[in-house]
Amino acid sequence: MRNKTTSLQYIMIYLILIMFSVVALYPVLRVVTISLRPGNNLLNESLRIIPEDATFDNFIKLFQEKPFLLWLRNSLLVTSIVTILGVVLASTAGYAFSRYSFPGRKAGLMSLLVTQMFPATMLLLPLYIMIAKLHLVNSMLGLVIMYSATALPFCIWMMKGYYDTIPFSLEESARVDGAGRFRSFVTIMLPLAAPALVITALFSFMTAWNEYIVAAQVMLDENLFTLPVGLKSLQGNMSTEWGMYAAGSLVVSIPVIILFLSLSKWLVSGLTLGSVKG
Amino acid sequence: MLNKKVVILLFLLLLALNVLLAEKPVEISLWHQMEPSKEPLLKELIAEFEKENPEYKVNALHKGTEELRTGFQTVAAFTNTAPELVYGPSDNLGAFEVMKLSDNQTASIIASLEDVFSEEFLDKFMEQAKFRYQGHIYMIADRLGNHLSLCCNMRLFREVGLDRPPKTMSELIEYGQKLTRDLDGDGTIDQWGFVWNYKEPFWYVPFFGGYGGEVFNENAEPQLDSQAAIDAFQLIIDMRNKYKIIPEECDYDIADNKFKQGRAAMLVNGDWSWNDYIKSDKVDFQLAVLPIIDKTGEYCKPFISATGYSLSSRATGEKLAGAKKLLMFLTSETAQRRFAVQHKSFPSLKTLQSDPIFTEDEVLQISARQIEVGVPMPVIPEMRAAWDAMRPALQNVVAGVMTPAEGAKYQQELTQEKIRSMYEDAGLIETKGQKVMRSVLYLLGIALGIYLCYIFIFKFLKELLGNRNSLVTHNNRFAVLMVMPAALLLFGVVLYPFFYNIVISFSNMSMTNIHSWRIIGIGQYIKVLSEAIFYSTLWKTLVWTIVNVFFHVVGGVFLALLLNRKLPGKPLFRVLLILPWAVPQYIVALTWRGMFMQDSGAINLLLSSIGIDSINWLSDPTLAFIACIITNIWLGIPFMMMIALGGLQSIPHELYEAARIDGAGRWEQLKRITIPMLKPVMVPAITLGIVWTFNNLNVMWLITNGGEPADSTHILVTYVYRAAFNLYRYGYAAAFSMIIFIILAIFSITFMNRSRISEKT
What we know:
The complex is a heterodimer. By secondary structure, chain A is an all-alpha fold. Chain A has helices at residues 7-36, 57-65, 68-99, 105-114, 124-133, 140-164, 168-176, 181-192, 194-210, 213-218, 227-232, 242-269. Helices cover 70% and strands 0% of the residues of chain A. Chain B has four domains: 2-144 and 306-369, Periplasmic binding protein-like II (D-Maltodextrin-Binding Protein, domain 2, 3-Layer(aba) Sandwich), CATH 3.40.190.10; 148-301 and 381-403, Periplasmic binding protein-like II (D-Maltodextrin-Binding Protein, domain 2), CATH 3.40.190; 432-507; 524-754, MetI-like fold. The chains are: A mainly alpha, B alpha/beta. At the A-B interface, helix 1, helix 3, helix 4, helix 5 and helix 6 of A face strand 2, helix 3, helix 10, helix 18 and helix 19 of B.
């Protein structure tokens, strides 16, 4: 099917991939180093990845001294709802934008972009006021709404762009077979758009997973903190618990990696149905 | 019979209500900024308080410096959800006091404590612990200090035959020269005599004071262009260039680290850090008062401040009573004693000053002497302007860009300018021309509103409710139903903040008139656009955006193309390559900052191994900018790679096959099939990538530590954050963001139209 890749090319590809992976990995390994260091050092003159006096103390302290599991639960709860909401709303809205022409379509697409253009830090003041007036303080719902709204514009554009690449003929034949509008969307389009759904899900997840500025305004009870807010609380004015901070950051990235690993199966299989269309 | 039942029922209901009410304790919120290491003790004390007073429940919340200050200001000024108690440094007080509760401009967001507490209670505290501003007490400190002192590692002293800390500056320099050593004889210094965070003005103040300088006179006018300022600058430069006792590059983390590792003999640092050093096994810790400046015979004069409790003016009734009780408990003798013993903090109660826990502790005694010779840090809001002006001046002098005399002049003028801009916003009134402009703006606003209503009512709703039999409208109805949920959610969240900002951008809102601001027309816009720095920063922002997005896209697509084939080990590479996206940005950005450090950073070590001299990345404006770009490229590639990987799946293999039959080479295939087919997916990602990069505050801020060196590495968002938000220029900041917004809108709409993506289908 593909262009033949010769073994020399394979070697080249591997070399390049290894090089990029090393560059991607090295700074992360530095975080690992900080997390294994005893005491409280962000910097060190040694370049060793595993420090001589390596210890897991910081990880243990994280779970013992801080309600880390509780934060993890809160984060997982908020993030999974945002992910589901993001995928559902973006896949439907993106479909409408891709397939139908309706009044306000172009303006709608543009205004999605427009919402992203305002510097977010400048919106904090009115956002604070809004959160307080709507009684969304300490509410998971408040966070879910904020995060979904942040993630949606990109997700809708992403879905729309992907639907655009799928030929009309596929749905048309389904419609001819008597399937309803919504049915043909669910049974034909969604499976075809699997790679885009994966990206939408991952993006929604990441938006909610790492955010702390809004969360720090909404959640004013330590037991309701999400992970990033909890991590931020390890930071002092002058002295920060760097070891614990690094350990926490690593723990925080594990769910992302798991999610990515489990989703990437769908990212590849993608348009296997592409050959059906003939 | 029936009546009886009703009565019993009512009675039971009342009883239940009573129980419910009784079991629901009054909640008291406390926002604090306690160092993480001290938090456990605070929690312990709060638990004891709750046990003693079961009618109260305390909700203590840690907030960072900025979040505490701006967060409290906003919630207290605009809403009813403010915490009853705030615990933070005394320098917030001025900025709290000027913020008023409402239009009438009298009551501040924090309560004056002499109205709330008895004289007898207030009398128990030392005078320095009661923080006054404009004649009222606004804060009671539970500890004094936050001051710098000289930390010595006596182990290193003894190695060169010294047995006590230096007393004068000349002695310090002499000791420093002995203590600066090349231990392994390789020609580079391994152990420094003296280190401190010499990029921050807080560490410059003690020397400046020692030479006789004062930051503000009693009329709150800055006094920074003086001989003292020049002498203090000269001293720092001499220590580095002439006496060579301090390293070429030093910030807080480097200094702290070198001292902790036993690679620096003397360090200037504050009382929050000492406990860490006492515990370190590489340090034989000895605290000393900062030395006497020989020229004046005066001690170095660090700023003395304090951290303590303030009461929100919004607290009333039971909550106020509870908050008072809590404040009294947390500043009580037992609480202060425990903090003093466990954390070496300096108690503020008169009775504890002669207590053995205090008089017999050597560190606390030296700390007390240091407090005696220091000067209280001004609580006036103008101090924020002074910090923001002294910082670039100091960094410029240290970098050799300015002479000490130029630096002194610069910091004075910059402080005056910043103070002026803090206050003049409120005084902005509209001119006649602006009045006309304002009417035009109003008209435009109304017209836009009418147009939106028209669209919504006549077009949108008509589609939704329209004739079901018509095929065309039926189609639209389905589409509108599909879009509606997302649209409602999105605009519900975005609309209010967005319009709020538009309104504020036409106003003179600032620190002193948060409630009584007025619409003044386009004055703020004119101000932004008439500043030269806006254009140079805009230019830098464009370079930043274009370079970043270019490498994100090229790198991402390139890697995706490599991965988009049968390849053993592919899942492993995929995971490795998205790691930069998976790990929280904050920590990796700081790791990169560490990698760019001059003498210990991985990047310079790598460069030197291929024969390139080490580069001082973070001290040169251009190099620091490049460092930020490198970091951000690293952070952004995985995202684009993901999008491209997804996009590549939609290209049918048959297309390539057909192209090959036509004799197209690889390059030809890439150009004619891959790139055009990727476009629908990539263009939105690139457009949003441009927007996000343009507005990316984090990376720039973290790598350059807020614009270092000397506020020269800024893009528009970091500039407006620093210039406007530090000084509470809300109107100015809103106008600035509107301009950013308009630039971006033009930029990205042009880009979208060029790539013809929205026209598709």
